Amino acid sequence: MTVPQTWHYGLIAEWWAVFNTDGPEIEHYRPFVEKGQPALDAGCGAGRLLLPWLRAGLDVDGCDVSADMIELCRARARAEGLAPALWAAPLHELDPPRRYGTIVACGVFGLGTTRAEDEEGLRRCHDALEPGGTLLLDNEVPYAVASRWRRWTKEERALLPAPWPESGTVKVAADGTEYELRARTTAVDPLDQTVWMEMRAEKRRDGHVLASEEQRQISMRCYFRDELVLMLEKAGFADVIVRGGYADAEPSPDDGTLVFVARRQAAE
């Protein structure tokens, strides 16, 4: 299998740890985790979901493809007197030390992987669940971002790779450190349903550049609703339910993210 291509290392891992600390997913998934312990945060990053659940006394492990993110998560947990089981691994190599009542894969499916690896990742999640256990997997629909969706056309693909933007997204940490991220689309393959992107990161303080990185490109494999339902069923899941966003609502064409609730059969 290929090595997963992600950009969640170095400065970009720092960005995620410092600024990506909340979101509706935390409370949306919490009742599932409470009812289905032990649980696994598969793609835990720096602990955005994992740490609030641990603070609440829930029995949750964590894994992530990025060793940098795992170390940041471990340091943050240790600072709060927490010691979760953490390890670095992609979904398609998932081989946890125990089975789970719930597995949450939030914002990670299809990143830096092949379709075969995604299929294997779903099988691994199925096998890591206890009978009757639940997989919660969210997926950004291919048409969620208009500027990216139009790149699928022949005319727009001819203009790739896109130039680097003159400026990017800038955020300032509590200690005054300034981070800037810039991203560009480099290629799109509609048949493979894959978008490739590159990212640059810079860290500054008082106008002085402390560090800068140009990360290798990452692939984002896009899946449509019914396609992913079929993949989950092929992996062995039953009773696959699709919800719109994180509001437990019926999905609509306007939802940018869909949540798939898939259960392993109670008796096999």
What does this structure look like?
This protein has 268 residues and is of the alpha/beta class. 27% of the residues lie in helices and 32% in strands. The chain is built from eight helices and eleven strands. The strands form two sheets. A seven-stranded mixed sheet has the order 3-2-1-4-5-11-10, sandwiched between helices. Helix 1 runs parallel beside helix 4 (67-79). The protein is globular.
What's the structural blueprint in terms of helices and strands?
Blueprint: H1 10-19, H2 25-35, E1 39-42, H3 50-55, E2 60-64, H4 67-79, E3 86-88, E4 100-105, H5 115-128, E5 129-140, H6 146-149, H7 154-157, E6 169-172, E7 178-189, E8 194-205, E9 208-221, H8 225-234, E10 238-244, E11 257-263
Parallel strand pairs: 1-2, 1-4, 2-3, 4-5
Antiparallel strand pairs: 5-11, 6-7, 7-8, 8-9, 10-11
Uncertain ranges: none
Helix and strand sequence: HHEHEHEEHEHHEEEEHEE
Helical stretch tally: 8
Sheet with the most strands, sense and barrel status: 7 strands, mixed
Number of strands: 11
Query: Whole-Å distance between the termini?
Result: 29 Å
Strand content: 25-35%
Bulk shape: globular
Radius of gyration: 19 Å
Measured as a percent range, the helix fraction is 25-40%
Task: Walk across the major sheet and give the strand order.
Answer: 3-2-1-4-5-11-10
Strand-pairing-aware structural class: alpha/beta
**Mean of pLDDT:** 94
Provide a compact summary of the structure.
This protein is 27% helix and 32% strand.
Descriptors:
globular, seven-stranded mixed beta sheet, alpha/beta, 268 residues, 8 helices, single chain
